[in-house]
């Protein structure tokens, strides 16, 4: 069953993937047919994503829907899903840490 915490995880994962792809909120919002402010509210968990929006985002980010529910899968997609050792910037590490903390998973 989904709850408010799940919404925050979805939004945080969308934001993480968007940031790792170096996409602006405005550009992603345009793809979804919504305003930048509305996308910001969605990324913060204040507004729900529709299935249609998640499908569009999955196509945009070239990932499966599960990436929006699991921070580990989102991180795997962000690094290309190759399993290769990639170097992260300090900013990348802080964003990953924030996602893990929000997910409540060790």
UniProtKB/TrEMBL annotation:
Every HTH cro/C1-type domain range: 14-68
| Keyword check for NADP | no
Mind telling me which Pfam families this protein's record contains? HTH_3
**A GO MF label:** DNA binding
Sorted keywords for this record are: DNA-binding
- Keyword DNA-binding annotated: yes
Kindly provide the name given to this protein in its UniProt entry.
DNA-binding helix-turn-helix protein
Biological source species: Phascolarctobacterium faecium
């Amino acid at each position: 069953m989904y709850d408010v915490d799940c919404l925050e995880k979805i939004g945080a994962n969308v934001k993480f993937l968007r940031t790792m792809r170096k996409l602006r909120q405005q550009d992603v919002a345009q793809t979804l047919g919504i305003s930048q402010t509305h996308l910001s509210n969605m990324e913060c968990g204040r507004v729900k994503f529709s299935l249609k929006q998640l499908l569009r985002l999955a196509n945009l980010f070239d990932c499966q829907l599960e990436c929006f529910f699991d921070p580990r899968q989102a991180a795997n997609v962000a690094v290309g899903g190759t399993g290769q050792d990639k170097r992260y910037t300090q900013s990348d590490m802080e964003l990953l840490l924030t996602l893990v903390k929000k997910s409540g998973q060790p």
